[in-house]
Batch of 2 targets.
Target 1
Amino acid sequence: MSIWRYANPAKFMATTERLVPALSWLAAVALAVGLVWGFFFTPDDYRQGSTVKIIYLHVPAALIAINAWFMMLAASLIWLIRRHHVSALAAKAAAPVGVTMTLIALVTGAVWGQPMWGTWWAWDPRLTSFLILFLFYLGYMALWSAIEDPDTAADLTSVLCLVGSVFAVLSRYAVNFWNQGLHQGASLSLDAEENVADVFYLPLLVAIGGFVLLFIALVLQRTRTEIRARRLHALRLRERMA
Amino acid sequence: MIRLVLRDVRLAVRAGGGFGLGLAFFLIVTVLVPFGVGPEGAVLTRIAPGILWVGALLACLLSLDRMFALDWEDGSLDLLATAPVPLEGVVAAKALAHWLTTGLPLVVAAPLFGLLLNLSGPGYVWLVVSLALGTPALSVIGAFGAALTVGLKRGGLLLSLLVLPLYVPTLIFGAEAVRRGAEGLSVETPLLMLAGITAGTLAVLPFAAAAALRVNLR
């Protein structure tokens, strides 16, 4: 028994068919609990007022936005090394989810920044890096859709993902060097000193859990769609040949 | 490989279009900026480093899609791929040729454009130094982008979408070096970072570009 069993599309489809509904329900429950708890049953912050509550959307979305790229990186490496088609399709499926999360993080940040910082947008390192990440996602998706042959597309986007990862990290540090930050430090870290206060911490964790589950469910579902689309394409080709 | 570089340079110079076009484009950007922001000397002095670097970057971008596309169309890229020279070497040679025909003229001409934008005294040296250090990275990164999009019908627009985000670190450190130089501050850190980026991209990206070319030639 190993994870490579799921490289077989049939096995993948059979397993995820049962997994996706379960994950979706779990995600819905966790999101409902986390967000309702966060929005209605936590006190207002004494300086930020009720605007603090956008943290339950902003932080999880930002977290997923970054980690979706890492997931794509891992999937691309697996495709390049072991040539499992499911892996390449999973990377393709994750990109639109990642770009949406990046957009959510940017928009919720702007909505919060307007009353708090007095501006929708500032050229702060974190904000700028996220905008660059957004551009990376766009380029990746554009390359996928521009190339017709699926294997060529998978290969080229995987190479782009590898190179893009290096440059994304590089840009992060370059941007840090370029401008001083307005954005606060980490909301969550293993170092308890840095964390947000306990009342906000627990619902935030639940909301993050919900976002992670949602991400996994969405990526699996989208991968299933991609596999079906490819099967359909193959069937059509066979029909035309016959 | 040297012959390949010479061939590409000769093609670029004699075929017209590519060579000099980047320079003309750079000039036009430099001329347009004062129309946009006003002719006030102090404002121009402040934004000159950034504008000059962005202009150089866009001028570099302009001729990227020709790097492999012409050889791809007439089939010479297939011959180059089967030649005894490794494909990584071909990529490096082509990037070098691209730099010689676009990057180097930009470096030489940049002080003149700095003059137009009222760049302050010590900035000129650092403009030339930072461009000389940074433009090779632009060419190599561009070669990678061009290799990714070579097989596409209308790759030009996609190429800029792919390549421009990759240019961000180079632009930041390059423009920062000129800005600090123009204000008389120490330029050591951004210049070292810029040199590091150039060295790193020169070492790694030819391999990535060659891998992409192999996929496209399959």
Note: Chain B has a mean pLDDT of 86.
Target 2
Amino acid sequence: MLGRSSLRDLAWAALLLVGLLVLPILVPHPAMRDFVIYVIAYGLLAMSLNLLVGFTGLVSFGHAAYFASGAYIFGLLMQSGNVSLPVAMLAAVGGTALLALVIGAICVRLKEIYFAFLTLAFQMFIHSIILTWVSLTGGDQGLMGGIPRPTFLGIDLNDSMTLYSFCAVVFVACLVIMRQIVQSPFGYTLRMIRDNPHRANFLGVNVVRMKLAIFVISGTMASVGGIVMALFVSGAYPEFGFWTTSGEAIFMIMLGGTQLFIGPLVGAILLQTLNHYVTIYTEHHGLVLGIVILIFVLGLRRGLADFVYLWFQDRRTRKLEKETGR
Amino acid sequence: MLKVENLYKAFGGVVAMNDVSLDFPTGSLTAIIGPNGAGKTTFFNLISGHIRPDRGRVLFDGQDLVGRSSLEIVRRGIGRAFQVASIFPSLTLRESLMAAVISHRRQSTQVLTRFPLQSAAERVEEIMALLELTAKADVLSRNLSHGDQKLLDIALALAMDPKVLLLDEPTAGMGPEERWQMIDKVYRLWEAEKMTLVFIEHDMGIVFKIAQTIRVLKYGAVLAEGTPEDIRSNPDVIDAYLGTDHDATTATATVGEG
């Protein structure tokens, strides 16, 4: 039996999916579809990172490593021509989970800045493997020759509308999974760890094991973002695993906010919009981006979604106080 | 129930716990008093597995706890609350307790169910009622008053269904009236739950009023133990507590012996 909160979330998910599928009909411009797919790929990266940053209090600077690992494993398997597309996707997710398990087992024992730097170090390590193992990865050229998209179960992803719909479905499925995780007893255990790991430990929570679990989950979700990206651009590039990609994910979280589940997605839309429009009008795109982030950090002091949420919450408490006559 | 034998711990050259042996019978209510730096909190840290003693044993139900993790010790039934309320600021009071009860029931790893769990709700309400926190159930922990935060800290420990509960200065930072309310609740809690309760306290009025047994620590050693009457008339305790002029010389002597 599903509870009320699960049903409400599923209704939201259905609504989002319908919205995403209707959007290209309302706005038939192909650039719109491309934009949404970018938001999906980077949104998954940012939202999965927020499972660590926002819900567990673990600031990882190396999250793009799992995005890249998803893209490369998927791309290489598809190029080998031995497996079907869904199998390659599952293998990419599974392979990344394994990678995250190994890296996480070493990182999650460390605190704060040491954790952040070690995750960054592992990412740079993976990035240099991609760059130097030219025979496998194509080095700085990326995976050459495109990624084939053979038809499976009657679905032909070479059709751009089908590809778009496929990405939308995968995206919404990932959101449902992540939402379920943060609203589960496990999700609240993560919040305990974020707020006060010392106390959580004295309440019988195995802090290290919980951190490792969410580290792996978060990595696998990021890998799905990488797979979407690889599917879309029909290739994989070392930049996927460069620190700037991790940095962008952190920007998205800062722009959107950490406290709401949907916050990083708002951030992903904001950042992609900025990237998209600012580059049309000026080449000083980094400057504009920096100013916008400064405005958020100094002006709102939090991400956009958090800001709006807190504003509503404040209003509600004030109203409640008035009613109860306090 | 709980028994420590020859517990010894030094930090560098400072002896924090010097050969302490104490016995806490099942269902007893014990106060631990002593001047600042006497090793009271260290004593709790040693029992709860936060710090490992250099020597000695901590026996709980006949088994030695030394070397076990704080996680394992709390699961065996030794709960503790902290001097500075140790809570979860961004969770509401009810959510915090729910999460604690879930942890105690080893359901923290569930990902397919939804928080809060119906099955744990009854226990959560029970604990809140016990400490008269029900009215504040939906307040964010960070917005609770100081006193309620301390109560929540105790409530969290209770969620573990402890056999032994260690309370580190439950009345710290409270005004006189609030203190008595707090200690009243602690006393009723002890009566209701029939647990072994050990608390650290500075307010002598409170200690003499409610404790069955008092243990006095000074410079990491047991200075005296006994009923409130014994302690009240013990010259050493009067000395340590009233802070007479020759306190410094006694101090040097005690450290020298250690």
Note: The first strand of chain B starts at residue 2 and ends at 11.
